[in-house]
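Whiteboard transcription, Tuesday session. T.W. wrote the structure tokens on the left side:
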């Protein structure tokens, strides 16, 4: 997030507007910002730069039309978003006070611009939160997709096993019917084997009786 926002005239370092968190631990960075502004007045310095502070914070500055726009923010804050913020800050400040910068003689003449700075700051910090939430949602969606794919793979694999079991069941059913027919045939043969002597004796007796009474 943004800890300090400073707008100053580039040729002499005159501060024009500022927004600073009410945190005593940030006071040394305000001193560092003034030192950086004194160096920016030298023509050899880049118009856009990032300066490490050997702390959890970093300075980004952007110079345009003789005005330096500087921000102190957390190191993990997107550099691209920080410079986008500075460019937007430049456009809004230039639109409202650009024509008055050259004639300003006292520090923080445009301190009334702080409310605009705070509003813009919140919009970019909220945007960062939105990006974080979007990234988190995307990660969660990817996890869900991976879980879904894994579940689908498991279902497909289970389906193959079920198909295999179904084929085996059909095969066993066919074999059981075959065995049942064979068992019935064997049972019939066994029954006939038991009854055949009785039938043979009965036939002989009937034939004997027939001829006996016929004579």
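and on the right, the sequence the group agreed on:
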């Amino acid at each position: 997030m943004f800890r300090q926002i400073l707008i100053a005239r580039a040729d002499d370092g005159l501060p024009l507007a500022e927004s600073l968190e009410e945190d005593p631990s940030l006071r040394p960075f305000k001193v560092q910002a003034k030192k950086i502004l004194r160096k920016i007045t030298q023509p050899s310095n880049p118009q856009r730069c990032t300066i490490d502070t050997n702390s959890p914070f970093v300075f980004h500055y952007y110079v345009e039309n003789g005005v330096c726009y500087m921000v102190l923010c957390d190191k993990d804050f997107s550099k691209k978003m920080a410079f986008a913020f500075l460019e937007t800050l430049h456009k809004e400040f230039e639109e409202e006070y650009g024509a008055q910068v050259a004639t300003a003689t006292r520090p923080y003449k445009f301190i009334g611009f702080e409310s605009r700075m705070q509003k813009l700051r919140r919009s970019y910090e909220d945007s960062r939160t939105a990006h974080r939430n979007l990234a988190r949602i995307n990660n969660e969606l990817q996890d869900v997709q991976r879980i879904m794919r894994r579940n689908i793979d498991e279902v497909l694999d289970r389906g193959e096993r079920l198909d295999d079991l179904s084929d085996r069941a059909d095969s066993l059913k066919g074999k059981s019917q075959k065995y049942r027919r064979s068992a019935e045939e064997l049972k019939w043969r066994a029954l006939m084997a038991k009854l055949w002597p009785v039938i043979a004796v009965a036939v002989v007796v009937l034939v004997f009786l027939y001829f006996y009474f016929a004579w």
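Someone added at the bottom: The longest helix spans residues 114-214.
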